[in-house]
């Protein structure tokens, strides 16, 4: 029934749909629900410890007999210099004063760890069927160990050049992440945000350039989007934002309220929340200090000084400093259980493709 079965055959899932990993707003509960609905569930592991990742995969294995994807970041850590920290604190000083916060008080550093030997051991032990990376790939030795453990490897590309780079290093499928996508841009061979192609332009060009299956991501939130992705040459889709309002996600009450009110023009690509370009619902900080600012320190350090502001504002029911990552199709999201949503997405995509085929 699906016009291209390469991803279904590779992942051995019921549908060619990947629930996107979404660090900070989901855990095993959403993975389990999406997998029960027939998707490949992805566990975001960039903001949790190896112990927590182990526990979460254990929960998933207990509850559902389905393949699982563990997702990691693989950025090169950059030290935060005193100058960069001082410049950012200076930029935020007015907000600290407004919230009665002491800028000299010690704060916990932002926690986005790249894939390393400790996580590699977890992968070797748990043997998830799929491992996905964001921001490129880990060093050759670690990548070799992941493959030797029998895991399929996939990673995001935001340009044709990145897709070809990933294929040359042996990935089993490429996620073509268009500019509409929520969350961090997976870009790793470029830092030129204005040049990032949209999903409609990127997917067919990546499909022409690589032999491995292409997973379209960015702005896909219903059956129409899935059918379009297949028409453009994709073998499957990775969907994030459309799952954010599911009861199984960990989006806060304030976040849910904000997501229920968004429109097609509510999101921007910004670097002020973490130091790396990411798309999210525009908030006060993005409006006033960004969306892109040279004062934001490198990833993930921008998030550190925002911690106390985020907490203070959220206490008052505001999301002024909250990174509510979401893509341009977020307004198409619905508040339905993730298993039901997954089945609806597949069913409506198939119906749409059938209708188009006449
Ligand atoms: C809230 C949120 C968090 C995200 N976190 C991650 C992550 O931890 N790892 C990752 O590889 N991608 C992450 N992404 C990007 C997704 O993998 C994917 O590219 C994106 O959700 C697709 O676009 P869509 O949101 O329009 O469906 C995140 C996206 C969102 C919306």
UniProtKB/TrEMBL annotation:
One of its GO terms (biological process) is response to toxic substance. The keyword Nucleotidyltransferase does not apply. Transmembrane segments: none annotated. Pfam families: NMO. Keywords: Detoxification, Flavoprotein, FMN, Monooxygenase, Nucleotide-binding, Oxidoreductase. SUPFAM superfamilies: Inosine monophosphate dehydrogenase (IMPDH). Gene3D superfamilies: Aldolase class I. It catalyses: 3 propionate 3-nitronate + 3 O2 + H2O = 3 3-oxopropanoate + 2 nitrate + nitrite + H2O2 + 3 H(+). Coiled coil: none annotated. One of its GO terms (molecular function) is nitronate monooxygenase activity. Its cofactor is FMN. PANTHER family: NITRONATE MONOOXYGENASE-RELATED. Belongs to the nitronate monooxygenase family. NMO class I subfamily. This is Nitronate monooxygenase. It comes from Bradyrhizobium frederickii.
């Amino acid at each position: 029934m699906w016009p291209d079965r390469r991803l279904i055959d590779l992942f051995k899932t019921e549908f060619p749909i990947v629930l996107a990993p979404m660090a900070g707003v989901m855990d095993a509960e959403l993975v389990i629900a999406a997998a029960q609905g027939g998707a490949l569930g992805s566990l975001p592991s960039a903001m949790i410890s190896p112990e927590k990742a182990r526990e979460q995969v254990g929960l998933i294995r207990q509850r559902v007999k389905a393949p699982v994807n563990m997702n990691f970041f693989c950025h090169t850590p950059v030290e935060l210099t005193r100058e960069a920290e001082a410049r950012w604190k200076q930029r935020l000083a007015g907000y600290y004063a407004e919230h009665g916060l002491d800028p000299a008080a010690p704060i916990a550093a932002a926690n986005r760890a790249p894939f390393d030997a400790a996580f590699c051991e977890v992968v070797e032990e748990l043997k998830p069927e799929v491992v996905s990376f964001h921001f490129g790939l880990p060093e050759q030795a670690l990548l070799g160990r992941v493959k030797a453990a029998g895991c399929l490897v996939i990673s995001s590309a935001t340009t044709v050049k990145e897709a070809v780079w990933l294929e040359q290093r042996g990935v089993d499928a490429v996620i073509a992440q268009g500019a509409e996508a929520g969350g961090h841009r997976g870009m790793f061979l470029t830092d030129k945000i204005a040049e990032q192609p949209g999903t409609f332009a990127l997917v067919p060009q990546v499909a022409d350039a690589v032999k491995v299956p292409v997973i379209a991501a960015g702005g896909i939130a219903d059956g129409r989007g899935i059918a379009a992705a297949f028409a453009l040459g994709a073998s499957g889709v990775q969907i994030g934002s459309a799952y954010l309002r599911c009861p199984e996600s960990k989006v806060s009450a304030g976040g849910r309220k904000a997501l229920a009110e968004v429109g097609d023009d509510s999101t921007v690509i910004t670097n002020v929340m973490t130091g790396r370009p990411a798309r999210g619902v525009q908030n006060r900080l993005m409006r006033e200090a960004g969306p892109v600012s040279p004062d934001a320190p490198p990833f993930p350090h921008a998030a550190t000084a925002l911690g106390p502001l985020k907490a203070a504002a959220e206490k008052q029911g505001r999301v002024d400093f909250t990174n509510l990552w979401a893509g341009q199709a977020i307004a198409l999201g619905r508040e339905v259980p993730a298993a039901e949503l997954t089945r609806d997405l597949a069913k409506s995509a198939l119906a749409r493709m059938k209708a188009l085929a006449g």
